[in-house]
Amino acid sequence: MSRERLMVGLDVGTTKVACLVANVVDEYIEVIGLGTSPSRGLEKGVVVDIGRTVQSIRKAVEEAENMADVRVQNAYVGIAGKHIRSLNNSATVSITRPDRIITAEDVRRVVEAARTMPLSPDVELIHVIPRQYIVDGQEGITDPVGMTGTRLEVDVHIVLGSVTAVHNLVRCVEAVGIGISQIVLEPLASAMAVLSSAEKELGVVLLDSGGGTTDISVFRGGDIWFSKTIPIAGEHITNDITVGLQTPIEEAERIKKQYGTCLVDSVGDDEKIEVATIGGESTKQVSRKKLAKVIEPRVEEILDLAMQEVEDAGYRDLIPAGVVITGGTALLSGIAEYIEKRYGLPARVGSLPQGIHGLRDIVESPIYATGIGLLKYAVETRDFVPTKRTRGSKGMLGKLFGWFRSFLRG
Ligand SMILES: Nc1ncnc2c1ncn2[C@@H]1O[C@H](COP(=O)(O)OP(=O)(O)OP(=O)(O)O)[C@@H](O)[C@H]1O
Ligand SMILES: [Mg+2]
């Protein structure tokens, strides 16, 4: 029997908030609503201004609701920022019952054991993802329930975040009157949207470079092994253009998108662009090569820092599938070629996978990778930390606001 459900992904980024609404029938995802709004309350991926973040979320949600003609009640919400830490752990339990058949309760027990560790009070568990189960030494099992054995082991990937960062995000979403189905690590979501199973199997680095942060994650054997966020991305490139070409920030952003590239040698010496001056009253001519020369060193810095993290974590030689880059900064002309040349690895820009229907041509951009990934996550998850903050646990203000919205919509 097929089940039709409404799923919502809410990507609260440093540059924009994106709300994606989908109709899901079994694993068929049809995007029926998209709302975006410029994000004003975040810095480096974390909420620093609750009021402004609430406004941005509300606007994006309402736009998506209007397009889809539904009311959003719960959402899968992405989280990132350099407060995120991840680690790998494992645990073992014995199966002592006479029949030795492994039950769901045994699986729960072993995962519970793997996630039990001393945590400081300012840290919160975001994910506990079982990578593999091992039954009496036999590795690579994804679902041991029903198998026979005496010893059940699990390898898990654990993601931790700062309590304050998580709570501020939760408060913002709940203030809009939306319950949180689950908080999801953004790179995990983006990976679901843009990586192929073959890449994840072989070994690949995913870089999600947005406005304020670049998230780095490594996948191998089908699962996530490493993730880290560095607080440097597209906004820094724009700032450099503002300074380097003496132009207002909006103009710097425009010319970056329209004429920017990180391949200095690909630009002819005689190519000129019109750029607004600081006062904005007039324009001046600047060589496009100069623009590229401002962009290139910053791109180099972002990518070098990211690849250094991969190296430090010991994965540099374990990524034959190379690098996939997504997020808005992946749209910078020449970036995949740049990565290939600089690191000698295959590289491509990741946008949309197969299997997404509906507003495909609109959401087929690296900018929506996280939002789409949240929907895929919602459909495919096998995570063990569903948040306790599920439906109905909204604060009083959130409940009132939710009620008010239903009232307005009749
Ligand atoms: N064509 C383009 N060329 C270069 N950069 C681009 C282009 N289009 C968008 N960007 C940049 O992408 C960034 C926004 O990306 P994205 O929407 O993924 O960020 P975000 O998710 O809001 O931020 P974050 O993930 O860092 O919190 C901006 O810095 C923007 O300038
Ligand atoms: Mg983002």
UniProtKB/TrEMBL annotation:
Any one GO BP annotation for this protein: FtsZ-dependent cytokinesis
Protein family: Belongs to the heat shock protein 70 family. Belongs to the FtsA/MreB family.
Assembly and interaction partners: Self-interacts. Interacts with FtsZ.
Any Pfam family hit: FtsA
Function: Cell division protein that is involved in the assembly of the Z ring. May serve as a membrane anchor for the Z ring.
SUPFAM superfamilies: Actin-like ATPase domain (SSF53067)
Name of this chain's protein: Cell division protein FtsA
